Sequence to fold (774 residues):
Amino acid sequence: MTITVDYRFPPGIDPQKQAKIIAVGQTAGTWDAKWSHREDTLKQHLAEVIDIQTDERGYSIAKIAFPEMNVENDIASLLTMIFGKYSMAGAAKVLGVHLPESYGQRPKFGITGIRKTLNVWNRPLIMAIFKPALGLSAADHGIILKQVAQAGLDIIKDDEILGDLATAPTLKRLEACRQVIEEIQQQTGRTVLYAVNVTGKADQLIQKARLLVKQGANALLLNVLTYGFSVLEALAADPEINVPIFAHPAFAGAMCASADTGLSYSVILGTLMAHAGVDAVLYPAHYGSLPFEAQEEHNIRDNLRSRNVFPVPSAGIHPGIVPKAIADYGNEVILNAGTGIMDHPDNPGAGVQAFFEALERLESGQPFTVDSLPPGALKQALEKWGV
Amino acid sequence: MTITVDYRFPPGIDPQKQAKIIAVGQTAGTWDAKWSHREDTLKQHLAEVIDIQTDERGYSIAKIAFPEMNVENDIASLLTMIFGKYSMAGAAKVLGVHLPESYGQRPKFGITGIRKTLNVWNRPLIMAIFKPALGLSAADHGIILKQVAQAGLDIIKDDEILGDLATAPTLKRLEACRQVIEEIQQQTGRTVLYAVNVTGKADQLIQKARLLVKQGANALLLNVLTYGFSVLEALAADPEINVPIFAHPAFAGAMCASADTGLSYSVILGTLMAHAGVDAVLYPAHYGSLPFEAQEEHNIRDNLRSRNVFPVPSAGIHPGIVPKAIADYGNEVILNAGTGIMDHPDNPGAGVQAFFEALERLESGQPFTVDSLPPGALKQALEKWGV
Fold:
């Protein structure tokens, strides 16, 4: 089996020469006569340039096929091979990575597993983020969760910046929120997921994740790109981590925001996440608060769904965005709002209600303008954040 | 204590506005009246814009001071805070990170510890890389090591692409090389370090590293940027890993090669590595085979040395480069050559000899041109690779 990678070179770069450098330099390398008796084995490890196309602007895309035997069925060794040393060689961007179906891992839960846990099947899931991000106590987290969970929220997560801090230690946050989750379960039969941000040095992080699950955590959040794909893959493969893992895209821009270097967002947040075993992936919605291309967002969505991973468009999501999001996604999506729920003019619970009102209004085909709305949570949200 | 970060914005970006977005959005975030009773705590977590300068080309540098209490004394939480979500916000590059002395970890060995292990004090250390990178057997590694170790080599490492592959499993490579290292020790009293590439999912990687050390590995190699800083920090903090750790820069270009996004090489390969507990860091020499700026190389060198971490300029290093390298570095450096040793016209042992001849020739102030050299390993090297 081979792994095919698409590299894009800007005008002025010789794509034939660079493709050859990658195919040889990122695999076996060169050898001289003293290794002629190993030639068969050495050749097996070489990559092959299978296609080079140059467009009218002078941009070239080289397709290079790498032997799967060169890597360890994980993302870290894959990145080292396809863009390790070569990432420092000049202008080249990895636009696509095409992996065998069997490469890496599949999510333990994914779209179907998360829906089954929540027993919600026929609508998008609504997710919130605890805000303000830093400075609330563990008890404050419990108070917020009660408001939004009673309003029908499906999932809540820590802000990605909130680690295991003295002001609100991770286990204390879990303790405060677990009580609320149990109350809601007893009162309504509904499950609410709380994705707890798991942090620390890799060994401590894995231990802490196991402890959190033992203590009742029903979901985890990981900043995959600052902690490392190998940490995600360890959690995803760990039988004790029998809860969904949500990936946050923090730091993705450091690898993906440049036009002519790094990798595309759809590779990092789409393809690689989808083969690393994560259950849901957050990323910027193109009509949100971060600059993002619609095509990249669509590619991420499709790459994730192809392996049953839940797409979670985020950043600047508020109730007024629901019609655009549903047009793009249909129901198989988690809509994730931070201030778009927490800063609702009324209260966070009204922020959640506004999302559900928006979903119902769309479902029943009613108009979606401020003027057409009855007084209530959705009207207030649209007045504040627009459509 | 605070952590100060320098962000550079290109012309056309409003640095005041962006600096404010970072200082608030990457810390506590905004809050409304309902959290006024938490105002004191929330404010403690906010970052502060301490300076903004714009140069004549329109580039601005904003200095932002973050409270150290927001992060966990590690690199992953630091990166999430200073450039997590914001990395996706548009054109901005992290040029400098200024950490408290006590932040993170210090190397267990570093420059002084590695010199003590080798008992070599008054010259640069010479390091080689097994080549070809993929396709040799474990026994081939032993044969190569014998040649270069007998010629006086100090350190050898796996190619960063060589993981735990069927053609040469990691433990088998160690077994073959450990025998050679023991022979050399018995025959000459000299220690030769072999930095074994440690790979796998984070938990397995850490277990494998411990096993390798138990089985006699006297150094480790880690692709820090593809596996994750949290993995490096776990190894560096682990009392069982009582051998030097060498960091490979694979994938650094994905984060650092862009002029207006990502982070500078001297932050990723200098500052952050130096606070993560690693003992030696490889990076491109500016006169080597990869495009690299002299100033960035010098900054990396100085950032590493300031915390006793060994700088290892690499990529395209060969004996002819020795005069330039010594002029830049003096003796506190590890000169790391791959094909510049392995592809010496005579044999890899002659490649090592050529480095030592070069050092002696410089020491004694003799001319360093092909014509002035007597026949031998150095002359052959200069004839092949130039000066």
